[in-house]
Automatic annotation (TrEMBL):
CDD domains: GAL4. This is C6 zinc finger domain protein. It comes from the Eukaryota. GO terms for molecular function: DNA binding; DNA-binding transcription factor activity, RNA polymerase II-specific; zinc ion binding. It comes from Sporothrix schenckii 1099-18. The keyword Glycoprotein does not apply. Pfam families: Zn_clus (PF00172). Keywords: DNA-binding, Metal-binding, Nucleus, Transcription, Transcription regulation, Zinc. Coiled coil: none annotated.
Length: 631
């Protein structure tokens, strides 16, 4: 074999070199002198570029030879010659697939070639399909808005799938309408941003949000006057309980697996579970959940390391539970006690930076008022009462702190910084609500077993101010006649809010104000408050207030229509006040239960001093109030 033949064989099949060397020893030296370059190695990108250049090179050359203006690397696209397809030509031209001139009655293309024009097909018109009757759909199974139809199959990071349309509708209602109802005018960022965000990332929060959304949908329909069948209510409650159980199971699984959750997720889960219990009227369960949940949070997280907004939110939950049930075991947190001692020892003098700061400090002062009044009535143990004195919860210091709060709050509202800012939605309502609570706290702090009920008659102007601030919160005009006070047309009834708002202060003012017309004005405002604020039910409070009013005014001859009496007679009646022996001093409302007649309601006991202050407190009135007074 010649040397050139040897090289050609090696280039064609390099693996044959070994066999060739073993058979032809004398060519080894020649082989070693011959340089055989290794085959080139290309990656995927280089091979693709080489292939593209080889394919495009002939086309580019053809374009340049034909005198075209295409640049290098651009393919020449040849378009098919022909006319645009026409659907209105004659039948003959359509069969021949030629362009028709569309002359009437026979086209020129057919007649010019000696063909017979078969004419034109009749024009077709699109007739709409007849509308079919669609049966009414349940509110929670209604088709969502088009924007929300394209939804993910899994809404949370844990992989919890969207089970059915009912679940999606409940979650949609929660994120679209429920959060604004829960937030009212406070904690707007918490409800409208943080809760929806974490509900897409945490399975427990998602299931709890679905349960709250379903219950809120039923509450909204009830407030709007839409009747609901008993079967639907039972189905809605069962669905909410099932979602609540899923939220609890998800939380328990995380605890068993020792998964550490952020503090805001734990607080949010507690708040949503609290709302579920409150919406179902399960007051005892809500109080127990609040007590144990806050204790668990204090154990799992360092309270001082939590965001200040979350800690203030927990403090307001505790305050709500203690004000709702004086015998509740929910105690103040150590942080709240320290805040009370700090405010009373050295009240701050700087104006507030925001409405939220004013609200949080006022909540601490109201907690101090509640702490002091409960100690006077024996709601606290002797040791706790002694500690209250050590912590400085005294009437003089508390009164000075309240006065200082009002002065700083007025300076904030009048400051250029506050007036220059864009007013937030509901800012005026929040300001009126804070002023209303301040007026209540100033009167409430003097309450106790040793105070005469006649002393409240000296605060008629304060009660009038409370009514005016409540009218500002509700957006109603200050009509002189209580019967003329109605909500504006644009105002929608609110079925449930998480925070305490108008119900507790208006109810307390109704029990202490004995001016007939002013008392009825407060009652009308209470009827226009939200249906439920936390654990406080508007209908329950209205029924209790009406019973107390009827008992105290029975000896005066006053009725519900006192404003319709003759002017002279009415003026005489309005000057009269019930005596001390006919006034109710303490009203104790039991927790929600099933009464003897099978209806859900509360047992109420009213205590007075019919035998004078020396005779002590006695039950003078006992009755039951129901959650559904119209049934």
């Amino acid at each position: 074999m010649s040397e050139s033949r040897f090289v050609d064989v090696c280039k064609a099949r390099p693996e044959s070199l070994i066999d060739f060397l073993s058979a032809h020893k004398r060519y080894v030296a020649t082989v070693r002198e011959t340089h055989i370059p290794p085959p080139p190695v290309f990656d995927h990108v280089e091979l693709l570029s080489i292939h593209t250049a080889e394919v495009m090179a002939p086309q580019t050359k053809t374009a340049q030879e034909s005198g075209g203006t295409e640049t290098a690397g651009t393919r020449v696209v040849h378009r098919r010659l022909g006319a645009r397809k026409d659907r209105t030509g004659c039948i003959t031209c359509k069969i021949r697939r030629v362009k028709c001139g569309e002359e009437k009655p026979a086209c020129k293309r057919c007649t010019s070639t000696g063909r017979t024009c078969d004419g034109y097909a009749p024009a077709t018109t699109m007739t709409p399909a007849p509308r079919q009757h669609v049966p009414p759909v349940h509110p929670l199974q209604r088709t969502p808005e088009p924007l929300l139809c394209a939804r993910p199959r899994h809404l949370v990071a844990g992989g919890a799938p969207v089970a059915n349309q009912q679940e999606h509708a409940a979650f949609q209602f929660f994120t679209h309408t429920g959060v604004s109802s829960l937030a009212s005018c406070t904690d707007i960022d918490f409800w409208t941003r943080l809760v929806p965000q974490l509900s897409h990332a945490d399975a427990a929060i998602y299931h709890a949000s679905v349960a709250v959304g379903a219950l809120l949908k039923g509450a909204h329909d009830a407030v709007a006057g839409q009747t609901q069948a008993m079967a639907f209510r039972a189905q809605l409650t069962a669905f909410a309980i099932e979602r609540q159980n899923r939220a609890i199971q998800s939380t328990v699984r995380g605890l068993v697996a020792h998964r550490r959750r952020p503090a805001d997720a734990d607080v949010m889960t507690l708040v949503l579970l609290f709302c579920i219990e409150a919406l179902q009227g399960r007051e005892h369960q809500a109080l127990t959940l609040c007590q144990r949940g806050i204790l668990a949070l204090a154990t799992a997280h360092m309270m001082h390391a939590m965001p200040a907004g979350l800690v203030a939110l927990l403090d307001r939950i505790q305050l709500q539970c203690r004000m709702f049930n004086a015998g509740s075991a929910v105690n103040e947190s150590p942080r709240l006690k320290q805040a009370m001692a700090r405010l009373l020892a050295s009240p701050p003098r700087a104006p507030f930076a925001s409405l939220d700061a004013a609200r949080d400090e006022q909540a601490v002062l109201i907690a101090a008022v509640q702490h002091m009044v409960a100690a006077r009535w024996g709601g606290l143990s002797d040791g706790a009462a002694t500690d209250a004195g050590k912590n400085g919860v005294q009437s003089s210091a508390l009164d000075a702190a309240l006065l200082g709060w009002r002065a700083r709050f007025d300076r904030y509202l009048a400051s250029p910084h506050a007036s220059a800012r864009t007013p937030e939605p509901g800012a005026e309502r929040v300001a009126s609500l804070l002023r209303l609570r301040y007026l209540i706290a100033r009167i409430w702090m003097a309450d106790g077993p040793g105070r005469s009920e006649m002393a409240y008659d000296d605060h008629v102007e304060v009660f009038a101010g409370i009514a005016a601030e409540a009218e500002s919160c509700l957006g109603v005009g200050g009509q002189a006649d209580p019967a003329e006070q109605t909500l504006p047309m644009h105002a929608k009834p609110t079925p449930f809010t998480f925070e305490m708002g108008l119900i507790p202060p208006l109810y307390w003012a109704l029990l202490r104000c004995r001016h007939p017309l002013l008392r009825r004005r407060l009652l009308v405002l209470l009827r226009q408050a939200p249906a439920q604020e936390g654990l406080w039910s508007r209908d329950i409070m209205v029924q209790v207030a009406e019973k107390v009013m009827a008992y105290e005014e029975a000896s005066l001859g006053l009725g519900p229509d006192v404003r319709d009496e003759a002017r002279d007679a009415r003026d005489v009646l309005l000057q009269r006040r019930p005596p001390e022996e006919a006034r109710i001093k303490v009203v104790r409302i039991g927790l929600r239960t099933t009464l003897a007649n099978g209806r859900q309601g509360d047992a109420v006991e009213c205590f007075g001093m019919p035998y004078g202050r020396e005779g002590g407190l006695h039950v003078v009135l006992a009755f039951s109030v129901f959650c559904d007074p119209d049934q």
